[in-house]
TrEMBL record:
Protein's UniProt name: Protein ENHANCED DISEASE RESISTANCE 2-like
Domain of life: Eukaryota
Pfam families linked to this entry: EDR2_C
Family annotation (PANTHER family): ENHANCED DISEASE RESISTANCE-RELATED (PTHR12136), PLECKSTRIN HOMOLOGY (PH) AND LIPID-BINDING START DOMAINS-CONTAINING PROTEIN (PTHR12136:SF41)
Organism: Dioscorea cayennensis subsp. rotundata (White Guinea yam)
Domain Protein ENHANCED DISEASE RESISTANCE 2 C-terminal: start-end pairs: 22-142
Gene: LOC120249777
Signal sequence bounds: none
Amino acid sequence: MVTCRYGTTLPNDSSCASPCTWATVDPSSFLIHGPTYLQNNQKVKATSTLMKLVGADWLSSNKREDDLGGQPGSIVQEYAAPGGRDFFFIVNIQVPVLTTYNLAFYYTMDTPLEIIPLLKRFVQGDDAYRNSRFKLIPYILKFLQL
């Protein structure tokens, strides 16, 4: 039986052969609102992603961990080194029990934020605005019971 080590960055395994790893999936496996969705409710296969997943962390802590991007040695700090990326979108799923568990996904993109007005409004909006618009669609290829 393989166990995941808490407090570590999960390795990328595009073959999905190893446990406790992450990989990206073909965007066409997701249906999204098409250009005429408001008229006919038709969804279409996605053809690309706006952001690139660059890493994932599996963490545990005795307190709530909110500033994962600001932690020394984090994935964000590595990618944001001089000449690196300057925009990151971090999805930090927290499970607060006796120990707080975090599953964090780190996304970045090549396009400047200003070129995508909808995303810029989302980033600059308040929590109520973001909560009314953010939709998480998980895709679990395999589930290994430990």
